[in-house]
Amino acid sequence: MDRVALRGLRARGHHGVFPHEREEGQTFVVDLSLGLDTRPAAADDDLAKTVHYGIVAEEVVAVVEGEPVDLIETLAERIAQVCLKHEGVQEVEVCVHKPGAPITVPFDDVTITITRSRV
User: Fold this and answer.
1) pLDDT digit string (tens) for 55-98?
2) Contact present, 89 and 51 (Cβ < 8 Å)
3) What is the distance, to the nearest Å, from the Cα of residue 76 to the centroid of all Cα atoms in its chain?
4) Would you say 50 and 65 are in contact if contact means Cβ atoms under 8 Å apart?
5) Which of 5, 32, 109, 119 is the most exposed place for a label (fewest CB within 10 A)?
6) What residues act catalytically?
7) Which residues partner with 71 through β-bridges?
8) pLDDT > 90: what percent of the chain?
9) Sheet holding 26-36, edge to edge
């Protein structure tokens, strides 16, 4: 399976279990790896035969900016389902970063990574 990757998609969301997270919001970063067969697109040099990653990026940002959820696990699941709606995408790996997580000790990042497929 071939991979189309998008790294570092940034959007402001209001996700989290604490009231200040919901009110103030914070930046979330999303990395995607979409699994699909790119041979038909390459053979014909045809965008219609692959995934339009620009559209995927816009849809993912819309999810992050959309309806708030408590858990980044839920956010990752919603992102995965949006990606799998694209016809050629057979599998997706989603990594959601929450670099502004409310943690009381020094840290670089908090992430959740999930893999979902059509089967």
Assistant:
1) 999 999 999 999 999 999 999 999 999 999 999 999 999 999 99
2) yes
3) 6
4) no
5) 119
6) 98
7) none
8) 98
9) 2-13, 26-36, 91-97, 111-117
